[in-house]
Design goal:
Elements: E1 8-9, H1 11-40, H2 49-74, E2 76-77, E3 91-97, E4 100-106, H3 109-112, E5 118-120, H4 125-130, E6 138-142, E7 148-158
Parallel strand pairs: 1-2, 4-5
Antiparallel strand pairs: 3-4, 3-7, 6-7
Helix pairs in contact: 1-2
Length: 161
Amino acid sequence: MSNETVPFLTQEAYDRLAAELEHLSTVGREEIAKRIEAAREEGDLRENGGYHAAKDEQGKQEARIRQLTAILKDAEIGDAPEADGTVRPGTVITALILGDEEKFLLGSREIAGGTELDVYSEQSPLGSAIIGMKIGDTGSYEAPNGKSIPVEIVAVETFTG
């Protein structure tokens, strides 16, 4: 593995992703194959929109299967960490960013599931800048445009899903 951190997943997130992978690898592949075959039977493939749409969808599905396989293979599974005032993956952070209060989950988008929370990766400029900070700490991170963005940690909460 590269120098990226191991993805953290709750058991619920792991189970949800494993079920999605199982579905895509079996039923999903069968459905796409049937759609491609039905479109082939329509004739000229060069101008067959249904065929091209099905092939495009097949490519996206196979990419998702590869992504899920990699996530599940390397994931560290456990409960979301108990909040102790320190920013770490799997916690919900409230921070003042450029003076605006924002609440977000630090970690994998896959953990968030159906929540409304924004998610920032711990490898993102913001995520890597705040890891290890405590409530009341201030710092900054460099935005993609090169500007320094000030951040203050207001709260760290346990992610409850």
